[in-house]
Each structure stands twice: as C-alpha cells, then as structure tokens.
Design goal:
174 residues; 5-stranded mixed beta sheet; 4-stranded antiparallel beta sheet; 0% helix
C-alpha cells in the first residue's frame, strides 16, 4: 500500500534496455480481472516506468457485485400469500455493511456498521411471490439484513441473516 494505492513493483535496475509488456495475470481478491496490458520500453540506466494515474494508463479493476433477495411469506400459510385484508407488500429490510472496510454503493461510501440501503417487498408476477431484492448493487463483502418494518396486517418479525457476496453477479436468496 502506497499513498492509498496498492502498487506492484520490481526491484531497482532489474530490467535491461529493451521493450516489455506488463500484464495483469490475476486481480486482487474481490475484483474482476481487467485484462490490463501495457507495452513499455527501458531506454536509459535506472529508468523507472510508472502506471500510476489515468494519464499514465494505470490498471483499474471493477469490484465484484452481487444481489440479495428475500421472499416475504405468511407464517401460518407457509407461502407468499397474504391473509384477509393484510398484505405482504412493503415489508422493509435494512442491509448493513459488516465488511472490514467501507463499501461504495449507488454513489456513496458506507463504513462498517452503516446501513447501506433499505429494500421493500413487491409482488413479482414471474415468481408469484412478494420479493424484496437488490440487483448487483452490493460489492464483494459481508452484510447483515433484517426486517425493520412489517407490512400492513402483520407483526414485525425478528428475521435477520448475515451473508457474503463472494462472486460477480452472485444472488443470495432467503
């Protein structure tokens, strides 16, 4: 780590005069390989090449992002069908960052312990169920989700789960 950046370096004076290609062969944990390549030349003694800014064509990797979905069900019926005048729509679930580091979601940074977002259950015609979900918005990390507001006609449950996102486009379903 160097000035808030992760830097790959060679020892001083390792490369003799010549033309080379630097290639990303493996990305850091939680990131997608950008297939970064850069051709460069060494033409002087003690010459140093830096790829440390946008101008200098640095290597940018995209973080893996995944999703979570929760199916809201009636406890007595054991299915996603409301009783009487109640509804299973608009149950709210709060997702909290439990990762070691901050996460960047929808243009904002969330520290560990911060509530990242609230999702609400809506009726999904394809699944014929009330679902609350995110769509590939949660970065590689560890999260806590819990019901924080009950739908009309129902009691607030003590439902909560911890989960991780460890692959790109991964879907965690509860």
């Amino acid at each position: 780590l160097e000035k808030d950046r992760y830097v790959a370096k060679l020892a001083d004076n390792v490369l003799p005069y010549g033309t080379y290609e630097a290639v990303e062969v493996k990305s850091s944990e939680g990131y997608l390989n950008a297939n970064w390549k850069q051709i460069f030349s060494i033409r002087a003694d003690k010459e140093v090449k830096k790829f440390d800014s946008v101008k200098n064509k640095w290597n940018e990797n995209k973080v893996m992002r995944g999703s979570v979905e929760v199916t809201k069900a009636d406890k007595e019926l054991m299915k996603s069908t409301p009783q009487g005048d109640g509804t299973l729509e608009n149950a709210e679930y709060t997702i909290t960052n439990k990762s070691k580091q901050a996460v960047f979601v929808n243009g904002k940074t969330y520290k560990p312990g911060d509530a990242v977002m609230v999702i609400k259950s809506v009726y999904d015609k394809d699944k014929k169920a009330y679902i609350a979900k995110t769509v590939n918005t949660l970065p590689y990390g560890t999260y806590h989700i819990e019901e924080t507001k009950q739908p009309v006609g129902y009691r607030l449950t003590k439902w909560a789960k911890d989960f991780t996102i460890r692959a790109d486009k991964e879907m965690k379903s509860f």
